[in-house]
Amino acid sequence: MNRLAVFAVRCTATTTIAALAVTAGPAAAAPSEADDRPGPRPTVHHNGHTVAESIPWLSLLPDIDAVDWKYWRSLARQESRQTARERARLEEPLSYDEQEPDDLLGANDSQDSAEPVAGFGTGGGEEPGVSIFGSLTKEDVRIRRLKRPDEDNGSIRKAAATEIPRRTLGVTTEGRIGDGPHGQAGTGNGDFDFFRVRIPAGRQLVTTLTRTGDENRLYPGVTYWNADGRRIANRHSHGNKVTVTRPVEPGTYYVMASSGHTRLRDPFESGSGNGANRQGDYRLRISAVRPDRDFYAVRLDEGDELGGTVDDVGRLSVYDPAGKLVFGSRFDASFIFPDVTPMPGGGRAVVDHSASIDGRYTVEVTSGTGDYQADLEVYETGGEASSSQGTQTLFLDFDGERVNTGIWGGSGVSELSPLSGFLGRWGLAASQENALIDRVVDVVTESVEEDMRAHGN
Questions:
Q1: pLDDT digit string (tens) for 3-51?
Q2: Backbone φ and ψ of 297, nearest 5°
Q3: Burial class, 166, CB count within 10 angstroms (exposed 0-12 / middle 13-18 / buried 19+)
Q4: SS3 state of residue 303
Q5: Rounded to whole angstroms, what are the CA distances from 396 to 391, 432, 443?
Q6: CA of 180: how far to CAs of 2, 256, 279, 281, 393, in Å?
Q7: CATH topology assigned to domain 143-289
Q8: Is residue 16 packed enough to be buried (19+ CB in 10 Å), middle (13-18) or exposed (0-12)?
Q9: How many other C-beta atoms can be found within 10 angstroms of the C-beta atom of residue 181?
Q10: CATH of segment(s) 1-138+293-457
Q11: E strands, 356-428, in order
């Protein structure tokens, strides 16, 4: 039995199901010199055939490293700009100005203290659109100069202490990738510099690594490890500096300075790298910063479709009446919406959520500093949002797959376990797997059909 179950349902173009999968359009025409379109759609070769490359955000691909990400991100930006231009022609929505002063932190930084946006909703006399104008404030922390650590500090066990937060909430120091015992002059396995920090509750870890010197060949790289040796964030740059900002739970963490394209196989063992490539001097700044978070409260009725975009800052999130995060986004994926959807797009981050119950929902704006504009829209199910019908296809995969979670801001490639790996824990034999798959497909199909009928579709 092929364990990739495929079925189609008839539903409105903007239900939650509609956002899960779309049918790819024709290949883009070759661009002229006068436009900025990303060019013809990439192709892949498989078993002697040449076919158009699948949309990576909607596909289970055999090799994610072969994806032409430059093309797909360029296409996403083009579609987002077009969406923004089209929405700019709509009539002016309700306007709301944040009440928290620009230089203050904490006035609306929680769901309980969220500012109510009056006049927004689908009820009588309410407006279905609102533009929220606010600002995220950067906290100033005292930066203490840290003595240049001695080598070898190339592992979690040998990490240099920063005294964060005992004496300060921020440190700056200098160092060099390549001066340790495993640089090019040593074993050649690669030099890595570790720094230990303890992050208090309510703060995020912010690190900037800047290469110094005119003849520096260093590709600045920063990686965060937790106390168990699990990598929780990493980034490198071919430019002069790289900054990594990560909200973390209270606890001890390890900041690793390195050169890009060099990997450490075991964070507990110095010298376990894959080679000493580009080396050079750097300046490092580590701080534990309290982020500014702005919350706004809106009232939704069951079945309302809420959509939102934000410009100039990095994250937009929606929480249900119980305080549970139901949608968080750092990316504009509105280009995968059906053409007929009225849902907003074109911002730096885009969210959409179908309200399951009546109540007070909160929208959070965070991850960044400075002024922003957040646009929210809401539609009643059965109204404008359901003016067009279409077939949406859902894929249920039971074989497990390699997924690049970095597309959505995760830590990188993860291996998803197949369904067969769970059978023993459930007291099932391998011979029962196909029957279980059939049952799962039946339940999902029934659930989708019930949801459609409940919403009048």
A1: 444 444 434 333 333 333 333 334 444 444 445 556 676 666 655 666 5
A2: -105, 135
A3: exposed
A4: coil
A5: 16, 18, 12
A6: 53, 14, 11, 12, 55
A7: Jelly Rolls (2.60.120)
A8: middle
A9: 14
A10: 2.60.120.380
A11: 359-366, 370-379, 389-397, 402-404, 413-415
